[in-house]
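Lab channel / #folding
Pinned by the channel admin:
"Please post every new chain as: sequence first, then the structure tokens as a reply. Keep commentary short and put observations after the output so the thread stays searchable."

First post following the new format, from NK:
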Amino acid sequence: MKQKNDKKVIRAWAFFDWANSAYNLVITSTIFPAYYVAVTTNKANGNTVEFFGQRFVNTALADYALAAAYLIIALLLPVLSSIADYRGNKKVFMQFFTIIGSAACCGLYFLNSNTLEWGIFCFALAAIGYSGGFVFYNSYLPEIASADMQNKVSAKGFTYGYIGSVILQLICFVFVLRPAVFGMTESSAAQLSFLLVGIWWIGFALIPFRILPKGSPNAQPHTHNIIKGGFIELAQVWRKVKNMPELKRFLPSFFFYSMGVQTIMLVATGFAAKELEMPTEALIQVILIIQLVAIGGATLMSRLSDIYGNVSVLIAVVIIWIAVCICAYFTTTALEFYIVAAFVGLVMGGIQSLSRSTYSKFIPENSADTASFFSFYDVTEKLAIVAGLVGFGFIEEFTGSMRNSILLLILFFVLGLVFLMLLKRVPTKSAGDTQQLV
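Reply from TO:
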């Protein structure tokens, strides 16, 4: 393993975010949701669709598909990450999930009103590839950066992700807004965008795959086969977590506020398209605003955390998220949605970056099983997404309005805030820890 804080390694690591964040922007946030709503809405059935013989509200079906994908990841990653620590080959898993995700995005090129089942399958598979690769990407952070640099490096990764995704979004934006210039229809322009995401994802991922080390194996001797050893490694990490008061408080807080954050990021475009009837062009503009503001937000939160401490800044950010949800509930015009989106961008990058670096600092320094520790982090996030999406989709189907689902998100953030306040009361090990985290 190379020395920590190597600029070349850190830059290569950040390029993984540059590569796969295009999926997060184009597929989950802008062009795909708008295209999906368009091809699944018709005069005969309204906004309901038939999926393998069962009828669903179209946006609720997409929520359920994502929830299923993240549930699969939540069940798989503890084993896979333990094996990665056991063998020291986390980069192989990053490559595997990247190939799956990028191929699935390319597969979305064939989605239309007659291939719904295929489209939902690829949509879910792309989510598995994205989230699966991210757990091993995250686990590199304590290996490549010292504790005093992790806030800055974590923010750098998210910044690269926002910039890269915006660049590809602008390229897709040209095709979607002026399809006739390129001899395409609006539908074929959207489908081309999905193909470009897959190519962009696998293409730029070659940079970190070439430079990042394969990962450091656990130095302890192993006498079990790879599968059994993976479970044993996971059990050992779980026992460590139970004896870490910071992690015992931070993980439930992260779980609850991630329910809100991740759900908002995944359903915001569908909400604007259905509840506010905003056109595709406006939706793309909104998401671009969010991404551009988020670049500054991630950097701002990193600097504030150096002054006021990670947990204190997280508390302030969660309070802003609660205010954002309340405003979103009462939003009825496009202008109001633009304003809300700007605040979402401010706190979106900050809370993700700061959560990752805060958790990284709670992990024992120079630990050999970083992938297993980060599997707890990522499984917590994935289960939060599952619960958030299922709850959001259920309330929409039950009440007939996505607006009512926002009330559930407010509850999630409040619970996350409570656990963060409890975390501030946990005694830290030293004055340096206090300044750094609380």
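NK: Residues 155 and 299 are 6 Å apart (CA to CA).
TO: also worth noting, The first helix runs from residue 7 to 27.
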